[in-house]
């Protein structure tokens, strides 16, 4: 972790003239969807960006390995503990991001700020008046929901969005909710998350993926000919893992040799185990607990299809992006998902998966039955999923109308 004062120089030759300061209190190596999104954004233009982020465990070694400079402000949880630190940290995020952004301006004279989320936005609003910069703000859904609850906070947030050069949403659903909530004239762009295969530690060659597939199946005594359904996520009621378990006896009754792997941990784990035992499919339901990202690629390789039947409510409709659907598609796996929220940005019905009404037992069962029995359909949807998952909208598109300093993108 680099100290801000006196800001020791540790800049590589290719980062001599960075002109974008990216600020986020969520940034790798802390595991968070927003942190992964912002990190992937920085990898697109390492010669243009400087990062300012909150400290986290393991950040020094991680920061040293990056192609761009990373500066950190302190994390109060390190010395106050999680309970007290969680109350103090928002104030630290706001104050430190403001003060240190000014110090970094004196060093780099950057022209733009990209604020990584809607959290701690008053610091950005103040910076836009103090510094001769323009700014973009990234929004992910949950940050908007947290802001609109307080009338004063909501008014300040709208003021900030009006002053922005542009707003970047992670999905069309987030964009639509933003427009309906604030009715702004500020240009709004949709740049979805992308999959960074390096985090899985999986080689791209098919032979290696086949080996990983066999290894996982062997670990759980799953025959090579069996159909494996995979889910990945925190074990909470909203994810509706029980709906998949309830379909296993029905699939077995129509002759499908099926197993279900659930990667994740959470409060619903005992209930899921009890349900599997009651339905007499406990030998076919495999709860792995927490799986590190470096091992998760093995499970995507081992499955035949991915399923997540998230239940609908207003918060879940806007919140998050559902990166696991995109990851499954990246590995060429067809997806069965609920027809709601940002999921419809990722899963295209009859192209890379099947969208269903998660409350319709008949519709859900027919989707499982169809994909389990039709290998050609699985392969077709999987191929299209790979294609869609590899498409990218680059953040540099935000600056196409702007002159690029020093020919950095040539």
Query: Major sheet: size, sense and barrel closure?
Result: 7 strands, parallel
Helix segment count?
16
Element order: H for helix, E for strand: EHEHEHEHEHHEHEHEHEHEHEHHEHEHH
Strand content: 5-15%
The 3D shape can be described as elongated
Radius of gyration: 23 Å
Helix content: 40-55%
Q: Could you tell me the number of beta strands?
A: 13
Low-confidence stretches: 5-15, 404-410
Please, what is the average pLDDT? 89
User: Ends: how far apart?
Assistant: 31 Å
Strand order of the largest sheet: 3-2-1-4-5-6-7
**Structural category:** alpha/beta
Task: List the keywords.
410 residues; alpha/beta; six-stranded parallel β-sheet; 16 helices; 45% helix; elongated
How would you sum up this structure, described in words?
This protein is of the alpha/beta class and 410 residues long. It has helices at 33-44, 59-64, 77-108, 121-130, 142-148, 151-163, 172-182, 206-219, 241-253, 269-278, 293-302, 314-318, 323-330, 343-346, 361-373, 375-389, and strands spanning 20-24, 49-54, 70-73, 112-115, 134-139, 166-169, 188-190, 227-232, 258-263, 285-289, 305-308, 335-338, 353-356. A 7-stranded parallel sheet has the order 3-2-1-4-5-6-7, sandwiched between helices. A 6-stranded parallel sheet has the order 10-9-8-11-12-13, with helices on both faces. Helix 1 links the parallel strand 1 (20-24) and strand 2. Residues 5-15 and 404-410 have low confidence and may be disordered.
């Amino acid at each position: 972790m680099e100290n801000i004062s006196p800001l020791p120089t540790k800049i590589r030759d290719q980062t001599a003239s960075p002109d974008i300061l990216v600020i986020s209190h969520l940034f790798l190596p802390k595991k968070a969807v927003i942190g992964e999104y912002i990190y992937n954004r920085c990898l697109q233009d390492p010669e243009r960006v400087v990062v300012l982020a909150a400290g986290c465990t393991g950040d020094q070694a991680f920061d040293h390995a990056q192609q761009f400079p990373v500066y950190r402000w302190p994390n109060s949880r390190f010395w106050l503990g999680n309970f007290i630190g969680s109350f103090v940290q928002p104030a630290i995020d706001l104050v430190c991001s403001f003060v240190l952004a000014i110090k970094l301006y004196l060093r780099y004279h950057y022209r733009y700020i990209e604020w990584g989320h809607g959290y701690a936005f008053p610091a950005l609003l103040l910076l836009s008046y103090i510094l001769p910069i323009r700014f973009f703000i990234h929004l992910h859904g949950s940050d908007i929901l947290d802001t609109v609850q307080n009338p004063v906070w909501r008014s300040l947030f709208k003021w900030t969005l009006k002053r922005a050069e542009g707003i970047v949403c992670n999905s069309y659903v987030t964009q639509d909710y933003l427009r309906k909530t604030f009715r702004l004239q500020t240009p709004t762009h949709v740049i979805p998350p992308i999959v960074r295969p390096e985090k899985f530690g999986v080689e791209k060659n098919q032979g290696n993926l086949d080996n990983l597939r066999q290894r996982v199946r062997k670990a759980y005594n799953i025959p090579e000919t069996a159909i494996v359904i995979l889910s990945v996520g925190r074990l909470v009621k909203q994810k509706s893992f029980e709906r998949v378990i309830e379909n296993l006896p029905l699939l077995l009754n129509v002759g499908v040799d099926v197993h279900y792997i659930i990667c994740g941990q959470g409060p619903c784990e005992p209930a899921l185990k009890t349900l599997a035992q009651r339905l007499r499919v406990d030998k076919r339901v495999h709860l792995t607990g927490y799986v590190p990202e470096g091992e998760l690629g093995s499970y995507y390789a081992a499955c035949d299809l991915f399923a997540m039947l998230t239940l609908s409510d207003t918060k879940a409709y806007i919140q998050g992006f559902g990166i696991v659907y995109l990851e499954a598609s990246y590995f060429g796996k067809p997806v069965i998902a609920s027809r709601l929220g940002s999921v419809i940005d990722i899963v295209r019905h009859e192209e890379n998966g099947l969208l269903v009404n998660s409350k319709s037992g008949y519709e859900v069962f027919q989707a499982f039955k169809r994909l389990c029995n039709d290998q050609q359909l699985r392969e077709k949807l999987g191929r299209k999923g790979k294609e869609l998952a590899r498409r990218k909208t680059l953040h540099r598109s935000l600056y196409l109308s702007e002159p690029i300093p020093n020919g950095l993108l040539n």
